[in-house]
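Morning!

This is the sequence you dropped in the shared folder:
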Amino acid sequence: MPASSNIYEKIVVDSLDRNKTDLNDISQQIWKKPEEKFAEKFAHGLLTDFLEKRGFAVTRAYKEVETAFRAEFQSANYKQGEDPTIAVLCEYDALPEIGHACGHNLIAEAGVATGLAVQDVLRNLTTQDEQPKVEGKIVVLGTPAEEGGGGKVILVREGAFEDIDFAMMVHPAYHNDLEPVILGVDMCEVEFQGKAAHAACGPWEGLNALDAAVAVYQNIALYRQQMKPDWRVHGVILNGGAKPNIIPDCTVSSYFIRARTISDLAVLKANILEIFHSAAEATGCTVKVTWEENPYTGMMHSSAMACLYKTFSAGEGVIFPDFTVSVSGSTDMGNVSLEVPSIHPKFFAGQPLMIHSRDFQRLAGSPEAQRYTLIAAKAMALTCVELFTNRQIRDQVLHEFTLRKATFTG
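The structure's back. Tokens below.
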């Protein structure tokens, strides 16, 4: 374990132990009152009130996003631009119908727990004369609408990370994964306009918009043979027509296009657009493609930061597999990772259950998940301390970030 963080491990452990009841209460309250994207008013109020009472300077409705917040605490001698500023991100939005089946209540708990533990370190109350004081600022950043709304994308666009040096969060899962493969995603709605006609009496008078939609679906299926292993395209036909005896004059489909890097996503997106337009040409229809406003990029992990997190997790017996083949979908934390060095490890939440299921929803609200959530918070807190106290590691992280970004964005 890096020496500088080892000095402060007891402070972190004591903080987590002292606050574990309050932290569990926060998690339980959010879990029992699930709120969907941009409607997380209860969670926003709960988290901001708690952090304000604990001595954080809180900005509600941060960057004019109603359910976003920023809560910060800095050491007594913190110097802007000289000492590091680290953001720990909270999520707290739920899924439709199945509530916190992605465990965002645990993500919020881990973020707050990390903030409290680092706050205790930054107070420098137990620092001995021979020990260096820890100077820096910890920011607990509340980021709404990860489940489809792109809250972090908006916050990035509004400059929320301009004064942040490093960022991190964790996500509960069915296994531990230090640098999960997180794909970027661009989502679109595809509308074909044709011409209606009687399907028996005069089909030759029509232009079949359903044929165009089906052609897209089939051609994407054929194209998958040539896709890279970490490319994904999936879609559904939302509106395929009114009745079988009417040639459909309008269809609407929805597609998600995913790839790991920005450069790969651009290539895949261009190829899928060709499929859309060729289907229109083949059927004589017109096509309109409407893209979502806040696309997610892939996650560019900081391996140097992840190595710290792994080291501190190992002290609690956490084992990360050397190689995982799973793809972890998409998250707007990817957009943050292109602004500042970031990590997004997955932590085993107590049972090997897949997220976005009713079983995982129950696990996220169970006592079983608490131990693992606080282990993840401890690893994040000690990673923060190491970044605050070790300039050499900070330089290594920033150098790695610069090199990787050039390749990642193409």
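Headline: The two ends are 36 Å apart (CA to CA).

More detail when I'm at my desk.
O.
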